[in-house]
Structures are given as C-alpha cells and as structure tokens.
Amino acid sequence: MLGKRFSAAKWVSLVVLTSGVALVEVSGSSDRHTSSETKGQNQFVGFVAVLAAACTSGFAGVYFEKILKGSEVTLWIRNIQMGLFSITIAFLTAIVQDSAQISQKGFFVGYSPIVLTVITVQAVGGLIVAVVIKYADNVLKVFASSFSILLSCLVSALAFNFRPNNSFLVGASLVLLSTVMYSHEPTKISRSNRDLLPLVQK
Question: Could you tell me the end-to-end alpha-carbon distance of the chain, in angstroms, rounded to an integer?
Fold first, then answer.
C-alpha cells in the first residue's frame, strides 16, 4: 500500500520482535491464571481471534499512515476528523447503556482525578502516535509499543510486586535485539570504490 520494501534483515528483526513481545506477555499472564480460570476456554478460537485482531490492527495502522502522508490536510485536522467518529460512537454507547444513571447524576459522574489522568494520558498518547506515524512510519510505532510493554512490566515490578521470570528476561532481550537489527543499516560501497577495493587490499 505504501510502496515500501524491507530487507531480509528487517523481516527477521520483526519476527524476533514478535517472539520477544509474546514471551513478555506470556511471562506476565502465566502466573495470574490458574487452571480453574482457563478451564473451558478454547485456545484455537483465542488464537484465531488474536490473529484477526493483529491483522486488522496492522491494516488500520498502514492505512492510517497512508492517509496522513498522502494528504495535504494537516495532522491536527485529520485527528479531529477521525476523532469525531469515536466521539459519536462513545456518546451513543453511553446513552444506550447508562442513560438512567446519566439523567440522575449527570454526564460526568465518576470522573475522578485518576480517571481524568488516564483520559489525558490516552489522549496525549494518541497524538504522539499520530506524530510518529506522520514523521516516521508505522513499523517504528510498533517498536515503540513494544518498548511500552517492557516499561509497563518494569513499573509493575516496582509498584505491584511483579517478579520477572526467565521468559520475561528472554523476551526483553529479544525486543532489544530486534531493535538493533532493524535500525542497523549495512554500509553501502559505491561501484567505483568497490572496483578499487581489491587494489587497496593488495
């Protein structure tokens, strides 16, 4: 869709990144779920759902990059245009599900300082993602999201007594390795210099 081509090293780095993030996620969830909680769950259906979510999310990210980079509309106007759909859907959902409570206690019931902080962080994060896609690309946004997962686990280790296991350490190492692999560009030798290289070696 964007006319980009990745080298073999970049494809390998993306596979390594996926493996690393998967290991980090598994390390954080394996201790929280007991056999009684997972009983009756269909792992195949869950895998298909995750795969479908990944494909649709990837397509949306690439199409979002195409819209931002292929349009003369400014980044802020484009965000407002797309945000209007989310605001409309969220408003209608709130009216349908919580109309009685909204009519009694007001629309902003439950908006505590913590809730407002979370909303602000999400809004600022969305704008930062748009800037990254506009001036970099969607792949770098994925790498940034992967680092955010690592950062969340580290904060959990400090604040919620989360103890990283071997899967987490291996996954974190793979994420760091994939970043180095993706950002590494092999040195290109011009044709004239390539012809002179045997003479220099002699």
Answer: 47
pTM above 0.90, yes or no: no
Those residues whose C-beta lies under 8 Å from the C-beta of residue 20, and which sit 6 or more positions away, are: 146, 170, 171, 172, 173, 174, 175, 177, 178
The per-residue pLDDT for range 150-174, each reduced to its tens digit, is: 787 778 777 777 777 788 788 878 8
Only one residue has tokens 């931002």, namely 68
pLDDT in tens, 26-85: 775 555 544 555 555 667 787 788 788 878 887 877 887 777 777 777 777 777 777 888
Q: Which of 7, 3, 1 is nearest to 182 (CA)?
A: 7
Query: What CA–CA distances, in Å, run from 72 to 62, 68, 77, 78?
Result: 18, 8, 10, 10
Sole residue written with tokens 């300082």: 113
- Assess contact for 182 and 14: CB atoms under 8 A: yes
Helix (H) or strand (E) holding 78: helix 75-105
Q: Return the half-sphere exposure (C-beta side, CA atoms, 13 A cut-off) of residue 2.
A: 21
